[in-house]
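Protein data sheet
==================
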Amino acid sequence: MTEHSAIDPVTLEVLRNQLESVAEEMGQTLIRGAYSPNIKERRDCSTALFDAEGRMIAQAEHIPVHLGAMPAAVDAVLECDPEPGDVFVLNDPFAGGTHLPDVTMVSPLAVGTAGRANECDEDGENSAEIVGYAVSRAHHADVGGMTPGSMPAGAQEIYQEGLRIPPTRLVAGGETRADVRSLILANVRNPRERRADLRAQQAANERASERLESLFAEHGRDTVLEGFSAVIDYSRERIESELEALPDGTYRATDVLEGDGVTDEDIEICATVTVDGATLEVDFAGTADQLAGNCNAPLSVAQSAVYFVVRCLTDPEIPPNEGCYDPVSVHAPEGSLLNPEPPAAVVGGNVETSQRVTDVVFAALAQAAPDRVPAQGQGTMNNLTIGGRDGSFTYYETIGGGFGARSDRDGMDGVQVGMTNTLNTPVESLEAEYPLRVERYALREGSGGRGRHRGGMGIERSVTLESDATVSLLTERRRHAPKGVDGGENGAVGENLIDGETVPAKTTLDVEAGTTVTVRTPGGGGHGDPEKSQ
């Protein structure tokens, strides 16, 4: 508890848990109400609660690349003069979004409105006060664009990737704008599924409004609003204490992306990390210029990756909110891979470049805290998208792989690593929902790097198509293996095959019914000399 806060420690802890439970209940509402397997099964979605100034005060522990970038979405909405009873929808990566499939809803929360139409005074003016914002972000299985699933490997401008939505009122004064909803649904495949998923996001935000009203009734408005600032201050003080424990200094590292879907040449990412007392600065000067292909990442995505690393290297029990981010600053040159200018294509930047940013910042900070940084994990989300050319279905999956070994234990097998935190699509659900048949789903024996502690194993997943379709793959670590540390061996590289023939890491192909797509994901690096006893 901060010295200036009038809230006693017990009340603060109660409020902190209740605010986090609001975000968690939002997530459960979204997952249970969604129609698409990508949200209801894989849980590719995130929810959070913000205060009236746009500061994150609580989040559900969902998808790291979503959550760290959410403040940019709220900032973008704040510029649109939101009113009680509004709901904004957006996905524009250059106006608060990350990549187009991630659709964000931002709802102002006002005392007494609970998501209903504006309360007005006798003069007809809005009398309700906005006290915060409910935010939900979900990966929609299709938002238009040149290929089903909106994850085209060959896109060279954002217009090819799908419908681009700047911050737009979907609900105004408590009334849904049918024209806006119709415009969105007219530009996507399978609009029935998209409509249901959008409604689930709306319901999640409404749940936050209901829960916040109950907290006001329980504790009083002033106490809850003071609690917003108190929990942020509490997290800031704890994260600053953790940063002060790191040795001051400047640490550098580089890594590469394996092409961008247009070129196969390696693309360099450079990070200079400076620890100075209770602050940490990351500068990506020297990183490649923005690309012709779609692996460009908006600055908010790079920031999100940095925040994730800082969270991993400090106390995981620190409540995740704006206070965790305040002591951290991130810079990238304008027009670069990590701060592109429109109309750059970005769909691969959110899913793959974010993973490499995580790896390179971990590598830099390993020089300051070697015992806290594991060997490299798979370093990719292994994005597989399969869609009917008639728009009848769109299947999207990120496939787990090997987690790097730690200094005191083996890496985990077949898990999501880094900037994603989704579940898989169960075989039963996949085969029931789509014209697909799973032929094989197993761990890749021997894919984890040897070491005193072994790296985690990757996965092999083979799917046969039962109808003609378009297949898109956005993957990494197909040439450069996840690195072991301290004498540990590298993990195995991944591999993509169509009917047994190897295909590039990033590719989009039209295939016929009966085609089998196989993704073999990378293993994690080992830790320590494998010849030395544990």
Summary: Confidence is low (pLDDT under 50) at residues 113-119.
